[in-house]
Amino acid sequence: MASVAVRVPQELSARVPVEQREPGRDRDGVRLLVSRGTEVSHHTFGELPGLLRAGDLLVVNTSPTLAAAVDGRIGHTRVVVHFSTRGDDGRWAVELREPDGRGTTRARAGGGGGGAPAPAPEAAGGPAGTKVRLPGGARLVLEEPLSARGERLWWARVSRAEVPGLLREYGRPIRYSYTERDQPLSVYQTVFALPSGDGTGSAEMPSAARPFTARLVAELVSRGVQFAPVTLHTGVASAESHEPPYPERFAVPEASARLLNAARAGGGRVVAVGTTAVRAVESAAGADGVVRARTGWTDLVVTPERGVRVVEGLLTGLHEPEASHLLMLEAVAGRAAIDRGYEAAVQGRYLWHEFGDVHLLLP
Q: Residue 117: what pLDDT?
């Protein structure tokens, strides 16, 4: 497990978006920490066009954020269902969580029907056959754990409702306890989000792209920076245990593969906007470093040992010191750069999490 040697004070959690913290600011009003190796500099996100150069290519994730949290009941016990990922067979991977009384959720202390404690290995989800009543008369039944690694996420079948419609009518964005209040879904959509034909999307916002505005994108394009859209529908994060990511659906279209290969051949830097964009691009790259159009599932976990074949830079949020995402950052920039950047972020009072500040790692 990756970790950095800093402690993040609780007050550095961004509790609301910057446009609510500082009225009059837009999304691009967050701060931007730039690391070039172990050299760091401090900027606002609006300065990004001056930090990139003509020929650079930004890889952006077009996955829309879903209103993926829905209230339910097991017997008389209240639960919150986090819908994570739609499977090829129509089932959904879900996580069952407990309301914590503050509008957010916590890991379940026990599975089992009617609130009875479950055996410890099944505490997060099951047992198989657990039935959850959902709004509008829908029913959810847990069938099997998603992975042999643990039982936090389960494959479940929903009857009497189509899940995309259920989420649109009764869902709300997943939020965690460091945030202050529920927000409308629009707050969690990035400027790059496109509706998907089957109603699927990301359980949690691809948040590195949140600070982009239409105005900033236009300025970048006018300076010769290009954009390569990819799609990766991100599943539910492991808020407590920081486990590696599960398989996720992704697509790298032919046009984006061509842009990526041309940028590298022409000396431009490939900068991924978010760890989801890294996972998608690296999943479509061969051992020769050539990117080919691909659609499907990826179980790739980018580590320093595996390395990166295409991505040279990364724009990302600030992750918890024990988060598994840090292995990917280390693969892109090296351990010394990550340690130095996080030290500077804490000293500089940068804000963490999806509504917080961002970190640009350049070669």
A: 39
